[in-house]
Structure formats: structure tokens, C-alpha cells
Amino acid sequence: MPDRRPYIAGNWKLWGTRAQAAAYCEKLLALLPDPGRRPADVSLCVPFTALETCVEALDGSGVLVCAQNMSAEESGAYTGEVSAQMLRELGVDGVVLGHSERREYNGETDGALQDKVPAALAAGLKPILCVGETEEERQAGDMERKLRHQVGEALQDVPDERIAEVVVAYEPIWAIGTGEVATPDDAQEVCYAIRTRIAEVFSGEAAAAVRLLYGGSVKAGNVAGIMGKADVDGCLVGGASLQADEFGGICRHYEMPVL
After folding, report:
1. Is the pTM of this model over 0.70?
2. pLDDT of 20-41, one tens digit each?
3. CATH number for the 7-255 domain, one of 3.30.420.10, 3.40.50.2300, 3.20.20.70, 1.10.287.3510?
4. 99 noted as active-site residue
């Protein structure tokens, strides 16, 4: 099995003033092992206004800081947008792209992501590409077609040699914020399908190197079963990441054997 280092990302969504962010980072670092003994990569995906605070508070800690969106453009008449270069100037490590809430509320399209993912890589940011299906699509048996399209479209212009730098997060939209969660077997089935699609677009070797995350009502109490599956390399945590204790418990899961 390829050596894909586990990855735990906490997505704060619309939460976190600068003061809250500073206090959270201090508390989280007290809960995590030292970087050299940490068995998983950890990142916080925070609002634009909290990015600089988190970068400063987490400097040298090994915890990565990611933005929640970015423009594919470097500059121009795009009011309200932030470029990849602006994020890099702040010391940001990565960026979430195509989150289901961005797709639903802000009209994010697969075509836009086709531009954003390569732009992030070119600027030195590690993208977390989100894909997933609605309850209606799942019930209609359209899940695999939807995911194949999202993955193929968004990664189409990524250079072959850089595909391993992209993290893909599977979000079952029906499970986000609902308390519902896919079974470990469900998560494995979908992540395997995503990896198969990446192999079709690139190669089996490239697909084996890409880290796949599960995101959908992940908590410290259910993380072990989900992350014990062969094709699930970590998780994208939403609501549970707003509490440092809970998120720290999810991150520390990798110190313990999976039963």
C-alpha cells in the first residue's frame, strides 16, 4: 500500500474572529503531539480575516493554514475576490476549492475549478478539492456519474507531475451538518471510485499517491471506523472542528490502533 500520510483538515466555515482564532490555536497546540511525533498532517481552513492570525500563531508548529476559497485570477476587476498570490504573501499553505456550500450558495462551477486548481498549484498552494453528491442524486443512482464528472473536470488541466499535491475531499452533501454520516464501507466505496477515476485521467501510480479525505459529520467518536479503510486517507472536519478539544481528539486518533 502506498505511503500516503494521513491528513486531518478542520474547516471553520463562517466562524472565527481574530481573537477566537488566536485562543483556539493556543489550545489546539497544547493538545497535539510535537511535530516530529505527529503521525498525521493537520490543517485549519479559516476565514480570510483569521488567516494572518493563524499563520503567526501556528508558525513552526507543523499545523498548516488553508484559505476557504480563492480566485483563479491574479488581479483585475473582480471585486471581493482574493488571489493565490495574496494568500501566499500571508504565508498560507493551502486552499479549499469547490466546497459544496460554495457550489450551492455562490455558483461555484466545475469549469471554474478547472482554472482554480492549477492556479493554486502554480502559486505554491496545496489545494483541497471538494466533490460530492446530494441526497437526490444518491437516491437516483447518479452518485458515481456525478463524482466522475467533478473529478475529471476539476483535475483536467493539472500537470501529471503535480497531481499528488492535490488532496481530494469527498463530501456527501446529505451528511454535512445533518448528523448523518456515511458508513465506513460507504466511504471506502466512494473513495475507491474517486481513486479509480483519477487513475483513468492520469495513471494508476498517480492515483495511488493522491490523498482522499472523507467529510460529513466527522467526530472523535466515529473517526476510527471511517479512517480505517484502505482508500480513506483522512478527513475534512466541519462543525466538530470549531471546538479545539473535539478537533484535537480527531487528530490524536492516529496515535491509537484502529480496531
Report:
1. yes
2. 999 999 999 999 998 888 889 9
3. 3.20.20.70
4. yes
